[in-house]
Amino acid sequence: MDTDSASAPGTQVVWLKRDLRLHDHWPLCEAAQRGPILVFYGYEDEWLESEECDPSHQVFIDQCLAEVQEGLRRLGARFLLRRGRFPDLFEDLWQEHPFRALWSHEETSGHLGYQRDLRVADWAKSRGVVWNEIPQHGVVRRLASRDGWAALWEKRMRGQQAPQLTHLPHPQRPRVASRDEQRLSLRDLGLPESQKVDALTGGETQAFALLDSFFVERGLNYRADMSSPVEAWDGCSRISPYLTWGALSLRTTFQRTLEQSQHLKAQKAEGESVDRRWFASLKSFDSRLRWHCHFMQKLEDEPDIEFRNMNRHFDGLREDEFDEEKFAAWCAGETGYPMVDACMKALQRTGWINFRMRAMLVSFAANHLWLHWRRPAVYLARHFLDFEPGIHFSQFQMQSGTTGINTIRIYSPRKQVIDQDPRGVFLKQFLPALEGVPEPYLAEPHLMPMMEQQMAGCVIGRDYPEPIVDHGAAYQHAKLRIGEARKAEGARTEAKRVYLKHGSRKEPLTSRRR
After folding, report:
1. pLDDT for 174
2. pTM
3. Which phi and psi angles does 469 have, rounded to 5°?
4. How many angstroms separate the CA atoms of 398 and 383, rounded?
């Protein structure tokens, strides 16, 4: 941020992107100290037309915008909302109401956002507008080395939160039409109705309510509950969509976690009874906050991994063997493997499933079905309400085995049923065809004798599909092909390059010594 240039008086435009909140918002606070403010949000045509965009994303965004809009009204600020392409939207605004400073958070949002920001930077320079970008996460731009990154992350997360806003001055005569202060509906945006009828509701209020209930009650058994699709809905925080769209800042979340941990330790020191599970759960939750930015940093450092293998040695491993029928079955939740299918159905209805089940979905697509990761990644991007490109594409590559530095995990869908949902609570909720299937056959209903299939009202091939691949054969095929690729000439050299660029460093963190 160019502080001297930013201090120039005049209208300050605050550009909201994936930071749809008023709490802990440094661009708003910094701009408010320098002049009258116009707060701006653009409905971006590139995003709306992209293959990753889903109506559920826009519903959640609109709920966040509604709360922001009301908060800005109370603070006395003008909030402009327009649809179009950047930087054209800023050029139109500049022509109507010339401004000298533009404020926003830094963003790591994938190819579309990266190219947009490059265009905005060029436009701002041509108009003499100073664009001030402030870090929002622990992601570090132009990071020279991963060595020391964890300490930088910790320093940012322990930094001061932006002060609470009480008033935001706006220009005396902004030349804006009333229509520019109206939010756009799905119909206005040319999008169909969202099919995610059980998705979370957006906005800061809901974000803090979820975080509070997690710290007070729901998170007690987090360390164990996070793996089970049965327990995870309540046992996990489920704040990821709010972090993705910025209704909640990561710094606020980290500091609230630290405060809760210190509060429990103080209670214990005073002789009060504290369930020991809280300490393990908060430690695990704390590690997930670090993990969040660790994966985003990969995309920041190497934007191409959204489209290309992180480890170039694996180029060509799956590209020429893409099976469209298997991909369609996976997308529809009709693979014949109950845990895979139930997870896909749940995701299509709610926009959220727990991490282990996400990893299983990706592993099944990449290894059992031998599909290149890019198209499955785009499909799930549409259905994850918390689609965060940096985490999403990095994780897809890790679970697909194309990083060359991570352990290959090929999940057994059968074992996941036995370990995580042996009674079929989750399975039957999203696969009603399995309602009458006896527990011993829930993991592999195709093994039921025909008489039992008829008695259960679940005839395989009619009421529920046959498995589209054999687990054992698919497992051996994937293990062999990936193993051969990792042993081939040049693989070790490329893996070393990937590690030096993206690998986690096991350095001590102050928070782990507290």
Report:
1. 53
2. 0.94
3. -145, 160
4. 20
